[in-house]
Write a structure and sequence with these properties.
By secondary structure, the protein is mainly alpha-helical. It folds into two domains: 1-30, no CATH class; 32-182, Up-down Bundle (Four Helix Bundle (Hemerythrin (Met), subunit A)). Helix content is 59%, strand content 4%. The chain has seven helices and two strands. The chain has helices at 3-16, 19-25, 33-55, 72-89, 104-107, 111-131, 150-174, and strands spanning 140-143, 146-149. The chain has a two-stranded antiparallel sheet with strand order 1-2. The chain is globular, with a radius of gyration of 19 Å. The N and C termini lie far apart (53 Å). The relative contact order is 0.16.
Amino acid sequence: MSTRRLLVPVLTLLLAAPPAAIAQAANPSSATGLRKELIGQLADAEQKFVALADATPADKYSWRPAAGVRSTSEVFMHVVGANYMIPGIAGVKRKPDVVLSQDMETKITDKTRVVDLLKKSFAHAKQAVMDVPDDQMDTAVNLFGTPSTNRGVLVLMATHAHEHLGQSIAYARMNGIVPPWSRGSGGDQ
């Protein structure tokens, strides 16, 4: 089906829908299908990142496994930056008050601020899943030098979060920190 043939029924439905229905459609809690699954993955990563960031002592935020490798806080801030930056590839705008800088990974190291920014960035990421219109999911984009689609951008955002969650879990365990969700589960301490 051509994009134009699909667009006419979608526009007709949107124009016929009451404003409350349109507003509800943009609410992540009303997501269905792929959007619901992506938001679920992002929510899972968020819950675990925040729990791990809270469980990590502030003095371990500067810990790094080797020279030239991101520190604990740098990994957390890398995820923050990605949660804001990756959706932009699909055309999702950040709020004007969100300012990103190239050096934020190394400059923002305060535990309280990092945890707050993790929460805010995941809220943005989950909303971004809702903000890409259905008729633009197949739109072609350049995803870090690889042809993809807006849908691929959203999938990358979720997988990227989980990739660095695994890295953060390894960092925590190397520092004797048991991920909070693992405590008491079948002897995994």
